[in-house]
């Protein structure tokens, strides 16, 4: 049976006093918890509306005052690689997209990280989300087609062995292109594909080393989609069992139940549910304020929501909705939830600790102790 593994996702946000404060904290948590990997997100704006990123709502704003002040991931990963000699963590981007960077540049960045990390790089990639693309002039009409072509381009360049590559593509044509960074000891970075819809699940089956969804779903749905991914892998002539099963989870945790309740009821936690699709809201008896057909994070533009609007939108969010959208609870409760996901096929959980959105700064900071406990216990699943 495949061993259950964990990773830690860092939001990569700028902090006062020390620019790498959060990176050092996440690295320490990953090492102390026995995690396998450390990840950095690839966002320009935050997934939370910056309008509520205020001390009266979110405690961590005293250290990280800019919700949208998010570092560029490949630069950050290069820095983390230099600090990783003894920790030996795998390093991943979770996840980049095919819209804002030419795939040749992504192939170059990932291959570089593979060497700098001594073979521990992971390329997490997906279609991306609207707020990272459309506001910056990226065509958002055909994200899946762009993604498929980007992956095919990356594979073609990695497999070229320095020979000139020409390839027709509606999005990324190659004309006598050269790529000559060799594999690290014969290995390229693993490709972890974030996929949710039917077409993306089939693409994950064709191309992914690991299926890596980062969207809201339930364990039963996860199992069904994993079966779709592996069926597509079989159709493509691949060994379906060779496609790993991972997922990224937002985590709200504390050692005391009272602090968990305060987290769940906080403005920040309830605002997170704006990233959930309308169908999830409906399961909890409330209408999504952005409409019955709203698909969730992929189409959210949080940067345009002012404070008053955001507070009105989240006024009726129940605890049950927050608890479905995130992993919520004490360490024991979080591990129990992960065990249910394991029973539905999950073998690798990347945890993003969002407990710093607690209204009190110290409560949010102390949540790292709870996360370390989760990581240690999850290794025994």
Helix content: 25-40%
Placed side by side, the strands forming the largest sheet appear as: 1-2-3-4-7-8-9-11
| Structure annotation, total helices | 13
Order of secondary-structure elements: EHEHEHEHEEEHEHEHHHHHEHEH
> Shape, please?
globular
Biggest pleated sheet: 8 strands, parallel, barrel
Alpha carbon gyration radius: 20 Å
Poorly predicted ranges: none
Straight-line distance between termini: 11 Å
* Average pLDDT reading: 96
Number of strands: 11
Structural class: alpha/beta
Residues in β-strands, percent: 5-15%
Give descriptors for this structure.
381 residues, alpha/beta, 8-stranded parallel β-barrel, 15% strand
Structure overview:
By secondary structure, this protein is of the alpha/beta class. It is built from 13 helices and eleven strands. It has helices at residues 21-32, 73-82, 103-116, 143-158, 198-207, 219-235, 257-265, 267-272, 278-283, 307-314, 319-325, 331-343, 361-378; strands at residues 5-10, 37-40, 90-97, 121-126, 165-167, 174-177, 190-193, 210-211, 244-253, 327-329, 348-353. It has an eight-stranded parallel beta barrel, surrounded by seven helices. Strands 5-6 form a two-stranded antiparallel sheet. Helix 3 crosses helix 4 and helix 5 crosses helix 6 (219-235). The relative contact order is 0.15. The model has no long low-confidence stretch (mean pLDDT 96).
Summarize the model shown.
By secondary structure, the protein is an alpha/beta fold. It has helices at 21-32, 73-82, 103-116, 143-158, 198-207, 219-235, 257-265, 267-272, 278-283, 307-314, 319-325, 331-343, 361-378; strands at 5-10, 37-40, 90-97, 121-126, 165-167, 174-177, 190-193, 210-211, 244-253, 327-329, 348-353.
């Amino acid at each position: 049976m495949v061993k259950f593994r964990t990773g830690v996702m860092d939001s990569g946000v700028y902090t006062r006093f020390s620019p790498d404060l959060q990176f050092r904290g996440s690295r320490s948590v990953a090492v102390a918890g026995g995690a396998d990997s450390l990840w950095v997100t690839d966002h320009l704006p935050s997934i939370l509306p910056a309008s509520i990123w205020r001390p009266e709502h979110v405690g961590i704003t005293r250290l990280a005052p800019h919700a949208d002040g998010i570092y560029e991931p490949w630069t950050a990963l290069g820095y983390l690689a230099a600090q990783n000699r003894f920790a030996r963590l795998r390093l991943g981007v979770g996840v980049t997209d095919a819209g804002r960077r030419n795939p040749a540049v992504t192939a170059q960045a990932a291959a570089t990280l593979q060497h700098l990390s001594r073979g521990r790089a992971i390329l997490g990639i997906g279609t991306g989300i609207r707020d990272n693309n459309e506001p910056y002039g990226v065509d958002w009409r055909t994200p899946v087609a762009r993604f498929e072509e980007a992956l095919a381009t990356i594979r073609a360049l990695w497999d070229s062995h320095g020979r000139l590559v020409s390839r027709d593509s509606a999005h990324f044509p190659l004309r006598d292109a050269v790529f000559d960074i060799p594999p690290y000891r014969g290995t390229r970075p693993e490709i972890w594909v974030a996929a949710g819809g039917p077409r993306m699940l089939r693409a994950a089956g064709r191309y992914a080393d690991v299926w890596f969804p980062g969207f809201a779903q339930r364990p039963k749905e996860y199992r069904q989609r994993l079966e779709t991914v592996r069926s597509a892998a079989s159709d493509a002539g691949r060994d379906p069992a060779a496609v790993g099963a991972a997922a990224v989870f937002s985590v709200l945790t504390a050692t005391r139940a009272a602090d968990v309740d305060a987290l769940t009821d906080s403005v920040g936690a309830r605002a997170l549910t704006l990233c959930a699709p309308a169908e999830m809201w409906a399961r909890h008896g409330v209408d999504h304020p952005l409409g019955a057909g709203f698909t969730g994070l992929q189409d959210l533009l949080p940067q345009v929501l002012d404070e008053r609007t955001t507070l009105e939108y989240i006024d009726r969010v129940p605890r049950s909705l927050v608890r479905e959208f995130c992993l919520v609870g004490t360490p024991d409760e979080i591990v129990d939830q992960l065990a249910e996901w394991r029973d539905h096929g999950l073998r690798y959980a990347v945890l993003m600790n969002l407990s710093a959105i607690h209204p009190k700064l110290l409560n949010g900071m102390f949540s790292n102790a709870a996360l370390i406990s989760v990581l240690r216990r999850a290794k025994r699943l």
